[in-house]
Amino acid sequence: MKTLKLNANDLKHLQQAGELLCSGELVAVPTETVYGLAADASNPDAVRKIFAAKNRPTNHPLITHIGSIDQLSRWVKSIPSWVTPLAQAFWPGALTLIFERHPDVSDVITGGLPSIGVRIPDHPVLLSVLQQFDIAVAAPSANPYQKLSPTSAEQVIAGLDGKIAAVLDGGECGVGTESTILRVSESKAEILRSGPLSAEHIQPYLPFPVTMPQSHQESVSGNMKVHYQPNAKVIICSAVELQQRLEQQPHTTAVVVYSDELQHLESEHLVRLSSDCQGYRQGFYASLHQLDKQGIEQLLVEAPPREPKWADIWDRLSRASA
Ligand code: TXA
Ligand code: MG
Fold first, then answer.
1. Which domains, from first to last, does the chain contain?
2. Which residue's CA is the closest to the ligand 1 atom numbered 15?
3. pTM confidence score
4. Is the pLDDT of residue 223 over 60?
């Protein structure tokens, strides 16, 4: 299959992306978090293609992306009353909510689970396609199974060229890591995957304390110990240790740093990220993609601050280094 490269700034291309989705094809689309591999959520045959293209186990459930909150009732059985203000506060945005699923939802989307994950993405390009074509799309991150999530159309192509109908290029993703996943019910709210929105952001909207179960049954692929893996061996270390290790193997080692302490560090393969958490998040996957392409053997990552707002970065880093 030849993968079309569509430009989101071109109205004809946007139209083509929507038409491809409506005819049951896979289109990689920009979201504010990472690129998603989208298929018409109401078409199980289309959704099935996602698993084949990514080589993803079929019991790993997919997030359904909707264009407006009124569509929620089509996908979920019931909405706990406290959840509506929460959704209104954060949607469109990087918060996926897990509900009991509507009886009409296909098992292909939910991997056979009784629940479904839904969010409204905060990206003008994807929102306009969803709204204009009145469609909802199931979309995991647009990477081959267990590889890094893409934050640009080029990274999507590097992993999925020839396996999908098209990629809609909407530039680089503004947020940079996958959405926070919150499972909700009448009496509970549990963070199943940490993301850009932390417990502190969410808590004010909840009638009870949010919890973060250490282990849960659901096949949240981001919950597997080995996930988000670049090809190089990833080592998280302090600024001091990083400099020592780099001296031992300068040519085959890459480094990702952010602190003032390493401001003057020099290396053949170096990415300097922002010391501001959101700035860091935005460049994070892109830096791993970039360094991985350079064929290095080890990747030294300066340990980020141990603060709650960095939880999703720590989560992705520890899986990348597992
Ligand atoms: O930001 C994001 O969430 C991106 C963009 C494209 O929206 N999507 C994304 O999808 O990261 P994916 O499939 O790579 O990760 C979604 C995670 C999976 O690990 C899946 O197992 C979990 O969400 N998930 C989906 N439905 C679920 C459910 N009903 N119960 C528990 N976990 C669920
Ligand atoms: Mg993923």
1. 4-205 (3.90.870.10), 233-320 (3.40.50.11030)
2. 140
3. 0.95
4. no
